[in-house]
Design a protein that fits this description.
Helices cover about 50% and strands about 0% of the residues. The protein has about 100 residues and is mostly helical. The two termini are about 30 Å apart.
Length: about 100
């Protein structure tokens, strides 16, 4: 579980840690980057984890083309029936707008 690791004590440190880990996965072949977190993790560090996570999500959606935040069942569905990014966007595969 990702929430068993130390990511820093400020929102900026949490964001940087999450981004650093995302890019490790991204450079390794663009494999899915799992985010397994307990709800209590967001409350730690006087809310810095929650704010850092929000910053991370905004940064990824703004700066990483083709990045999606999906559920495990959506990921499994995509693995079973893969589509190109263009097909996913045309069909609104995950029901989300950028």
């Amino acid at each position: 579980m990702m929430d068993s690791c130390e990511h820093g004590s400020t929102a900026k440190e949490v964001q940087k840690s999450l981004i650093r880990n995302l890019y490790r996965f991204h450079r390794a072949g663009r494999v899915p980057f799992p985010l397994y977190l307990h709800a209590s993790w967001f409350e730690r560090n006087a809310g810095a984890n929650l704010e850092g996570f929000k910053r991370f999500v905004r940064a990824v959606l703004a700066k990483v083309p083709g990045a999606y935040f999906v559920t495990q069942s959506q990921l499994v569905d995509w693995v079973r029936y893969p589509m190109t990014l263009e097909e996913m966007e045309a069909k609104d595969k995950f029901g989300c707008k950028k």
